């Protein structure tokens, strides 16, 4: 096992009817900013519950944080936060709203332009406290310090690290109104988050392997039931909890990580607006295929423990494990091939060019260069 | 899934050579009390590493917190802490040293007698900050707020809840010098901690089931290797990490819990000084047997997923799962029957009497009364 440090201070408040608990967690007299996405929370009753719970607080609202939040939008929220002197931000929405809020919280305490913080995380010295009412499980943002921020002008999308939410409220009932496609993307996103922390060298941390496999098996178990009934409380609770546990550091203790699939997926989103979860469903099976020799032992373990694949030669079992993975995404109703989105050579060439220009070397072994990314994308055609 | 709240602020610092990190975590100028057990840390080099790391701090030492820490001992440490005005306590030792330290930390800030805090946890209003250098993995105390405190005068042993350690340093190399029997007790203790949170009603939280099963399988996987080689870094890391993860709330989210086995085991310790882990190895198989109808579905799930038991009638599979559990403890070299410790009817009658007198109703279904405890102990004879 590798040496590691772990600390996750976020308070999770999970279950039916928990939105009303906001008022117990935010001191009276706090100057609050609420941040929102496009308005779905006004349709599903979440907005009303939040406003009810916050009676008596001095509240300012910021609307319009988009999926894959853009710094162009967030700058406006930072301006508002500075002008109104807010001391606490409550993000009400999905992972994008909360990701954006993480940059807003730091941007309010920063004199320069917020994009500088994204380009150089070490410039983050302080931030306004924030918390979340999570309405769309996927990114784990509700219990980690990370975010992904895009720049419309430069067509770039980068990771950004700041602070943990003070608390996050997860009421599975709010997920009932999420469109089926978004739920599928959330499940795929969670699945791939786990894989990024799992599909590396074998034998580093057997307990983390078991927990990652447990998360994967649980997602596989619940997906068909969710496809049938979006309002099954227990299944939607599992979806919500799994998304949080998939990326809150709990399965990352003392293990190597990969993230090549995510970095390539981000480019598809940046260039074509591909939904994040779907971009991963396209890239992951191809990454596994191209790196199957390097990841051989772990793919075999994954195949056996997660999918029960025990028969056939090593090469056959590897092929089967990758097929099962792609099939899982297809059962979720997601596309798994670039040609289905009319993405082809031009995009592959652009991503290769970008990676080469940036000199990136991605993945556990730092061997996913522009050339390897091309091979992965060609495999995903 | 049940509604739940989860928050665990402890910082875990895990790995080789991490004891030196203490100084980064405790502000300069802090008036420190170090708490210790019987002196094993002077033999294995831990004391030296701690003292080296704390050069420049104003330190007072308290020695002699025994296994199953007694309030009689802890009162002396509280007196010392008050007299010396300490503002931080660093427990250097095993679960007992840290458990005792949790009461010391609260006792220093309390005007009455410390046993009152144990009898009525609601009297705990504040405590001195504390942290740990954990030398004997088992109780999970390094990452939870619980403790178990004994009273020599009244022969009682009760749970006590206070605060989380600010940080805990876990260097697996310090476990190399733990006697084999103590390692076995630690593994058994961890195994039963997981079972107390797992062996309840099925279908409440499928993800927590997977994580609990992962912990159990991991303990089963590592035990033979540890029996062969106490200085295998990777295996001892697994033992140490599993002990922490087994009782830090991570597998307790939104699930019912049991703890009847522990409460009965505590009585064996209180009356006969049976080592905690061994008391659980004796009681658990008997609890499973006596409650096998109530816990039927979960025992079947446990048998199948953890032990691969898929053949035979339900009743045969249940019997086999319980046998496998007892065999696991025996492979660890632990006793699993009361008669092996010369404990018999007299003790059973006393525990029944105590439970009846206290009117306890233990376990998930609050049906483990004095009478049921008698049945369990008779089954463990």
From TrEMBL, chains A, B:
GO CC annotation: cytosol
Molecular function via GO: alcohol dehydrogenase (NADP+) activity; butanol dehydrogenase (NAD+) activity; metal ion binding; methylglyoxal reductase (NADPH) (acetol producing) activity
Entry annotated with the keyword Oxidoreductase: yes
Family membership: Belongs to the iron-containing alcohol dehydrogenase family.
Name of the protein in its database record: Iron-containing alcohol dehydrogenase
PANTHER family per UniProt: ALCOHOL DEHYDROGENASE YQHD
Superkingdom in the source lineage: Bacteria
The Alcohol dehydrogenase iron-type/glycerol dehydrogenase GldA domain, residue ranges: 9-172
Classification lineage: Bacteria, Pseudomonadati, Bacteroidota, Bacteroidia, Bacteroidales
Domain Fe-containing alcohol dehydrogenase-like C-terminal per the UniProt entry, residue ranges: 189-351
Keyword annotations: Oxidoreductase
Organism: Candidatus Aphodosoma intestinipullorum
């Amino acid at each position: 096992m590798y040496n590691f440090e772990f600390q996750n201070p976020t308070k999770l408040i999970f279950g039916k009817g928990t939105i009303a608990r906001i008022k117990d967690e935010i001191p009276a007299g706090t100057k609050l900013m609420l941040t929102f996405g496009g308005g779905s929370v006004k349709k599903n009753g979440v907005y009303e519950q939040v406003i009810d719970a916050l009676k008596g607080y001095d509240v300012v609202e910021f609307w319009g944080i988009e999926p894959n939040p853009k710094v162009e939008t967030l700058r406006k929220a930072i301006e508002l936060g500075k002008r109104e002197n807010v001391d606490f931000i409550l993000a009400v929405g999905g992972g994008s709203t909360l990701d954006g809020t993480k940059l807003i919280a730091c941007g309010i305490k920063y004199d320069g332009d917020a994009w500088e913080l994204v380009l150089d995380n070490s410039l983050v010295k302080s931030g306004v406290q924030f918390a979340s009412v999570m309405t769309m499980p996927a990114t784990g943002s509700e219990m980690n310090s990370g975010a992904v921020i895009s720049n419309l002008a430069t067509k770039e999308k980068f990771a950004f690290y700041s602070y943990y939410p003070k608390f996050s409220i997860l009421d599975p009932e709010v997920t009932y109104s999420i469109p089926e496609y978004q739920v599928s993307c959330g499940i795929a996103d969670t699945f791939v988050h786990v894989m990024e922390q799992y599909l590396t060298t074998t034998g580093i941390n057997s307990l983390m392997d078991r927990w990652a496999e447990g998360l994967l098996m649980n997602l596989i178990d619940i997906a068909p039931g969710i496809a049938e009934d979006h309002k099954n409380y227990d299944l939607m609770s599992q979806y919500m909890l799994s998304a949080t546990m998939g990326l809150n550091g709990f399965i990352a203790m003392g293990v190597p990580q990969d993230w090549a699939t995510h970095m390539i997926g981000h480019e598809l989103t940046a260039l074509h607006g591909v939904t994040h979860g779907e971009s991963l469903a396209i890239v992951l099976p191809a990454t596994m295929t191209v790196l199957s020799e390097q990841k051989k032992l772990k793919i075999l373990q994954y195949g056996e423990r997660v999918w029960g694949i025990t028969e056939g030669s090593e090469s056959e079992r590897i092929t089967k494990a990758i097929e099962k993975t792609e099939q899982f995404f297809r059962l979720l109703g997601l596309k798994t091939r670039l040609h289905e989105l009319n993405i082809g050579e031009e995009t592959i060439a652009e991503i290769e060019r970008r990676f080469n220009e940036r000199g990136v070397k991605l993945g556990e072994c730092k061997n996913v260069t522009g050339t390897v990314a091309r091979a992965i994308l060609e495999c995903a055609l």
